[in-house]
Amino acid sequence: MYETNYHRASSVAEAASLVSGSDDGKLLSGGQTLIPTMKQRLASPSDVVDLRHIAELKGITVSGSNVKIGAGTTHAEVAQSAEINGVCPALCGLAAHIGDPHVRNMGTIGGSIANNDPAADYPAAMVALEATIHTNSRDISAADFFVGLFETALGDNEIVTAVSFDAPSRAAYQKFPNPASRYAMAGVFVARGSSGTRVGVTGAGSDGVFRASDMEAALDANFSAGSLESINVDPSAMLADMHGSAEYRANLVKVMARRAVEAAA
Amino acid sequence: MGVEGIGASVARKEDKRFITGKGRYTDDMIVPGMKHAAFVRSPHAHAKIRGIDKSEALAMPGVIDILDGKQLTADAIGNIICGWMIHSKDGSPMNMGVWRPLAEDTVRYVGDAVAIVVADTKAQAREAAEAVAVDYEELAAVTEAVAALKDGAPQIHPEAANNQIFDWEIGSSADVDAAIANAAHVTELDVVNNRLVPNAIEPRAALGLYNAAEDHYTCWTTSQNPHVARLVMSAFYNVAPENKLRVIAPDVGGGFGSKIYIYPEEIVCLWASKCTGVPVKWNCDRTEAFLTDAHGRDHVSNIKIAFDADHRITGLKVDTIANLGAYMSLFSSSVPTYLYATLLSGQYNIANIHANVRTVYTNTTPVDAYRGAGRPEASFLIERAMETAARELGVSPADLRRKNFIREFPHETPVIMTYDGGNFDAPLDAAMKASDYDGFPARKAEAAGRGKLRGIGMSCYIEACGIAPSQAVGALGAGVGLWESAEVRVNAVGTIEVLTGSHSHGQGHETTFAQLVAERLGVGIDTVNIVHGDTDKVQMGMGTYGSRSGAVGMSAISVALDKVEAKAKKVAAHLLEADESDIVIEGGELKVAGTDKSVPWFQLALACYTAHNLPEGMEPGLKESAFFDPSNFSFPSGCYICEVEVDPDTGKTDIVQFVAADDFGTIINPMIVDGQVHGGVAQGIGQALLEGCVYDPDTGQLLTASYMDYTMPRADDLPSFSVLTTKTESPSNPLGLKGCGEAGAIGSPPAVINAITDAIGNNNVPMPASPQTVWAALKA
Ligand SMILES: Cc1cc2nc3c(=O)[nH]c(=O)nc-3n(C[C@H](O)[C@H](O)[C@H](O)COP(=O)(O)OP(=O)(O)OC[C@H]3O[C@@H](n4cnc5c(N)ncnc54)[C@H](O)[C@@H]3O)c2cc1C
After folding, report:
1. Residue A164 to residue B226: CA distance in whole angstroms
2. Mean per-residue pLDDT, B478-483
3. Distance from CA of B766 to the nearest CA of A (A)
4. How far is B768 from chain A (nearest CA, A)?
5. Verdict on whether the full-model pTM lies above 0.95
6. Among A86, B66, B410, B672, which is 20 to 30 Å from B744 by CA?
7. Does residue B2 register a pLDDT over 70?
8. Is A54 in the pocket of ligand 1 (CB under 6 A)?
């Protein structure tokens, strides 16, 4: 790791000013992505601004079907939240299968979506739940937030403060983990709400997370695993690496979608 | 058996310090004035070094010095050598290229060391290492052995035309060809044995200390064999003569073979300590370990196995190309030859065997022995071929094996091994019973109802341990003898120290070796201390690999104990005024048989050291040593049965049952043996299902250089193993031990792949059988 200056912010406003006042500053949340990257000397921020001690970034509120999760909420907290479990258990299940206990106790939802790893789990849920991403300057719809591989709509030094969504009537997440990293090789979040069915796919798309609109249409017509049979997932839109060819990932997307629908039915 | 003697599952004495974080590893060593090293490593798989500009790096904070290959050569530090001479079939010696501890003109793999930076802190050393400007002229690289042999492939060493190191054979080709020509059935397979990265939990480290006042060097290092390290460093690398060099291998966190070899880093740290006048410590990180720890396996083979009409094997022919990487590591040449082809007879009576092995340089990390070393490659070939043949012949895999089992011993194979004993039916029967083999069809049908493809596969392995009779290995080209040494010191008040040339890096010697003493002398294991890993404390020894610490290391202790007992009996007879032949050792006492006369150990020991009343002419003291050289290898064998369920939608394989039945001869501590089998099977399942080292074939970059891409087995990848043993004692050592350290890794890969191929009905499933691979095989 290269030398860096550590700052502990106590409010979002202080964090914003610390990070914009530094040469090449980085926000630090759970550190489960940023710290390994720094240890491998692939990132060398001049300053890191620690968000972990900011009270306004913490906490889960559920009122009716509306769910709001502070950006600094850890995966473990989401996994174990009785409130979320009451309205959207699929999200608890998703969080419970991120990484290992260490990662879940440190990593946060804000860090995960800000990082937008194409194999991360949360983005699939965010797009399928049509979530809103709240920042220190605006609200962004999930559809607009996730731009590409590791790319988001966040401006320089913009801070994610929370995410919110209306819980769907039914939802399920199915993930096929990469055997080595255990990130998603294909993760499909299916949500069935008042405005229809939404299918978010992570781990597989060559542009990162996406919504499978043809699957959504088929499921709107008939919410059953069988109605996905005729859908073709196009391998040319898939990622390919040594763990999974584009054809394999296309197959996994369909299999995981089918299983998610079965689990949500 | 006493409560702590042979056969008792006593808890491991060493675990208290390990599980409370109090182990003392090389990186825990701190000496006054110590500084830190980082290596400048090649980012290219193959390049010429045009020049090295150190000026910017030398000016950086904390930097003490930066040393490169030219300085190393100027100081006459020698080449890294391979210690086993193999001759090609035309009689020519192997074509060994030059391996400099710091590359001077050419780098040959990503990670090849170019310079060492010594600085006040590790961070400063790393920072400066990045600032060393090496001017490289990139050359074309080749990573695969088959490609490296082809005309026009990049040439890696001038000494090795076409990158071929040797072209070796064993057995009679003509006889096998005749057997194949006359066969009723021939099974043929092309088989790749995938390259693996060892991944010991403790990364390698070294601390070099030069003491100018005494002109003496000390090296703390992560070694499985500190004496061999000292021998090689003084005899070949010209670091220092043996009497001026102390090598200490303290607690070592796993080796699996990768810590046998003498690597550039420990030599360079010692030399750098003299150059800079400060003690120099280096500790590698995980990615550096992926890049520079010797890898394992990497064979491409063809096997043909011929049967007569009665399904008896009449001939076996193997052609193998083995990738040895960019340089020849210490034992690299022996692994694909004498540790491999000599085991190709498996458990079977085969009159004609021929194997041809070509070894090849490539622009990859050097390849050497890794848990099993040659024997996993051999058993994978035979056991895949036997299972395939059974399917082709339409007979039960067990029956085909039984029909061909060797049942008379000693049995001399056509590939120079003499199996000295065994009973191959026993583990096969035991494993079939434990796995309810006959009930498989019902389980398969039930799984089909759940949409799963269930398969079963077996493997009957044999391997050679207790490495090895010195004269035999000398005749085959080894540069060393493979005996082991021991010294048993009975202290003046009866506690005991055993100094052993074996080295424990996870095996539990501090417990099992003490159990042997407990068994023999009737004392508690807490009164016995095992001393190992320090050339200043322990007499010359050969170290731990090839499951040799029991069969060879403990045998040396046993012989030393014979001598201790003989002397103690003489003294006891004298003290008790009895005849020496009437003295028996029991329960911590020396007794006159049939009487109530006895003398406890501690009193007898005291008598030896006070020497007030010893038999006429006897030397005082009670301390004996022994060097034990085995008369043969030992031959553990066993049968492994694996049952899998494959998800046809995703290709994911779950191991739903795994039974290991092993014949390890005498067992000292069943709990530790179970642990060795669990670990070995985990590594074998790792090879079969999960682990595969992948290089970019064009650039030679290691693509699997971290756990993000290299799939290490985890607990939830593995089933709960069912482990059992059968027993025939080895006749080749006094304890009847065979060795259990590698069996799991040797026997399990073919069982797993046999099960998967059975499940999916396609016999072509390469390792690792990842979900993608199995899915593709299902579609093929
Ligand atoms: C071993 C391991 C396994 C993992 N497995 C999985 C897995 O299976 N699935 C999965 O989805 N993830 C996985 N992860 C990633 C994990 O979920 C991380 O927690 C997540 O990617 C990043 O969250 P963090 O809180 O740790 O963020 P950090 O690492 O602290 O930050 C990540 C990035 O986001 C930025 N950032 C952080 N917080 C904010 C904010 N509030 N506003 C704006 N920018 C911000 C940072 O500047 C940085 O660029 C794994 C990680 C590890 C180490």
Report:
1. 61
2. 94
3. 14
4. 11
5. yes
6. B410
7. no
8. no
Percent of chain B with pLDDT over 70: 100
Give the distance from residue B322's alpha carbon to the nearest chain A alpha carbon, in angstroms. Answer: 23
Full domain range(s) for residue B391: 141-193+295-405
CATH number of the domain within which A139 lies: 3.30.465.10
In short, whether A103's Cβ falls inside 6 Å of ligand 1 is yes
Query: Which CATH number fits the domain that encloses residue A242?
Result: 3.30.390.50
Residue of B nearest to A181 (CA): B708
> Are B438 and B619 in contact, with CB atoms under 8 Å apart?
no
Contacts of B85-91 with CB under 8 Å at 24 or more apart are B85/B333, B85/B477, B85/B479, B86/B166, B86/B168, B86/B333, B86/B334, B86/B337, B86/B359, B86/B477, B87/B166, B87/B168, B87/B477, B88/B166, B88/B167, B88/B168, B89/B167, B89/B168, B89/B169, B89/B356, B90/B167
* Beta bridge mates, B660: B640, B723
Q: Using DSSP, state whether A161 is helix, strand or coil.
A: strand
Which of A186, A262, A203, A90 has its CA nearest to residue B451?
Answer: A262
* CA A143 to ligand 1 center in whole angstroms: 20
Of B288, B650, B685, B696, which to mutate for an interface test with A (greatest number of A Cβ within 10 Å)?
B650
Q: What is the secondary structure of B144-205 as a DSSP string?
A: -HHHHTSTTPPP--TTSGGGEEEEEEEE-HHHHHHHHHT-SEEEEEEEEE--B----SSPPE
DSSP H or E segment with residue B757: helix B743-760
pLDDT-based confidence at residue B355 (cuts at 50, 70, 90): very high
Q: Which residues of B touch A176 (CB under 8 A)?
A: 650, 652, 771
**Residue B400's pLDDT is what?**
98
pLDDT of residue A265: 81
Q: At what angle do helices B771-779 and B743-760 cross, to 10 degrees?
A: 40
Q: How many CB atoms lie within 10 A of CB A211?
A: 19
| Residue A56 domain flag | no
Type and span of the H or E element at B292: helix B286-292
Q: What is the pLDDT of residues B547-583, one digit of tens each?
A: 999 999 999 999 999 999 999 999 999 999 999 999 9
Contact check, Cβ <8 Å, B708/A180: yes
In a domain, B23, yes or no: no
Residue A179: domain span: 170-264
Residue B1: the pLDDT is 47
